[in-house]
Amino acid sequence: MARVSQEHLDARRRQILDGAAVCFARNGFHATSMQDVLKEVDLSAGAVYRYFSGKEELIAAIVGEVLGSVREAFEDAARQSPPPPPDELVVPVLGRTLAARENLTVDGRPAFPRLVIQVWTETLRNEELAALLREGYASVRAIWSRIVEAYQDAGMMRPDVAPDHVARTMIAAVMGFLVQHSLFGPIPVEVLRDGLRALMSMSDERTASHGSQLG
Amino acid sequence: MARVSQEHLDARRRQILDGAAVCFARNGFHATSMQDVLKEVDLSAGAVYRYFSGKEELIAAIVGEVLGSVREAFEDAARQSPPPPPDELVVPVLGRTLAARENLTVDGRPAFPRLVIQVWTETLRNEELAALLREGYASVRAIWSRIVEAYQDAGMMRPDVAPDHVARTMIAAVMGFLVQHSLFGPIPVEVLRDGLRALMSMSDERTASHGSQLG
DNA sequence: GAGCTTAAAACGAACGATCCTTCTTTTTAG
DNA sequence: CTAAAAAGAAGGATCGTTCGTTTTAAGCTC
């Protein structure tokens, strides 16, 4: 094809990104060869290298997309008003995250959660990508801290804990759930929701004095 | 050296494992070349291949050790009697995990948490290692479920949530904390402890009827 | 609108580099 | 002196990438 429509070019680029994403989710970035990718997307080297300057750029593009999707999932969930309690806040975050790129699968399982872990390891060796991750993390952390402050202001939560610490704890729970999802297969989101709900039911008797006027 | 003492053989094996672990924590298993490992441990190929049949076996050995250490950390913490509440249970788990292989560092930072993430990705592509991970996870999950049952039996936690769900949630929190530690640098364990403590202080008003007789 | 033109798009063989591993040689400890 | 341990050059395979060739589709001509 020559002098092809912009839509075709975009579709090709996406085709390559999707095929590469599947390969990377299956085997990781560096155990996946370019030949693997070429076979998966059913294109020749010449075709792929027209759209991406090399493997590095392909990886960077995918990492960027994945980080963006996760960040959006966290930020969108936090946009709800009024902010739902933690156990319910976690549902839309994971819902959106697990639904991301649902069309891409690795032996019948969604590829995206696997991709997330792979992306984490890649940020460990690529400072540029690490900076991107840090930026998104900082943003999410700040937004979620606001929600925690709301909990405290409403007397729903003891006020003597730094909101940031609670935010990081909640983010950790979501991350860990995502890991379990990747490593052990699909888990209903309700597992985490109910788990948090149960934790929330534990009256803390050691320093019980906080705003909630007990009925 | 010829006809060398058993201790020397053991020390060599450990030297190789430690050097390789640092390399793998830095760059991942498959972006690390054998030459990288050889340079790190300051040995020749002939020496290393006397102790390990190849890269694959080296990876498997390290993955096994890492999974074992993490599993021990989780199980040991659960052995405390009486079982501490979640926020305090989490402290020894992370303490032991973060202290594992503390002598190994990647540019000044502990290598072990990074290694954990790398291990996860490796289990995604190696069914044998995946089985090992599943086994350890199942064991930890069962043991932690017991602790949750104790919470419920003592009236500290609402009894209408499956203990396994709570166990998985707590494990998720620890895993996620570990991820944050790897990706963003050292975090005091108190962050997670206080975060959980705050969550535990949230009286769940929707279905408040559970055993704890509010004083 | 059929056929030709042409430049873009895709192909795929092949290159140098690097990979993991082997194997011969050298060194070393008992 | 001897056999184990370590060395390190080199083999074969595979890697990412390039580049000359072929195919294709949009535009032009008649």
Automatic annotation (TrEMBL), chains A, B:
Keyword Repressor belongs to the record: yes
Residues of the HTH tetR-type domain: 10-70
Keyword Metal-binding attributed: no
InterPro entries named in the record: BetI_C, DNA-bd_HTH_TetR-type_CS, Homeodomain-like_sf, HTH-type_TetR-like_transc_reg, HTH_TetR, Tet_transcr_reg_TetR-rel_C_sf
DNA-binding region: 33-52
PROSITE patterns linked to this entry: HTH_TETR_1, HTH_TETR_2
Keywords: DNA-binding, Repressor, Transcription, Transcription regulation
Pfam families associated with the record: TetR_C_6, TetR_N
GO molecular function list: DNA-binding transcription factor activity; transcription cis-regulatory region binding
PANTHER family named among the record's database cross-references: HTH-TYPE TRANSCRIPTIONAL REGULATOR RUTR, HTH-TYPE TRANSCRIPTIONAL REPRESSOR RV1474C
The protein's name: TetR family transcriptional regulator
